[in-house]
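Quick one:
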Amino acid sequence: MAEKVMQSGLLVAALLFAATAIGQQAAEAQAIDDEALRRQASSLFAPIPTEPPTLKDNPLTPEKIELGQMLWFEPRLSAS
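Output:
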C-alpha cells in the first residue's frame, strides 16, 4: 500500500513538473508572438494625425467643420 502511495506521489510530482515546463514554454512562445505582432502592427499602422489632411480640390471651411460636427453628434445616425 505504501508503495502505491509513493508511486502516486511520484506520478503527481512528474505531472506537475511537466505542466510547469509546458506552461513556461507557452509563456515564452506567447511573449515571442506578442513581439512579432507588435512589429507587424507597427509596419501596418501609423499614429493618428493631429490635423486633417488637406485636399487640393476640396478646401476646409468653417461651414464644413460645422456640418461634420452636426453629423458626428447626430444621435439618429448611430445607436451609440
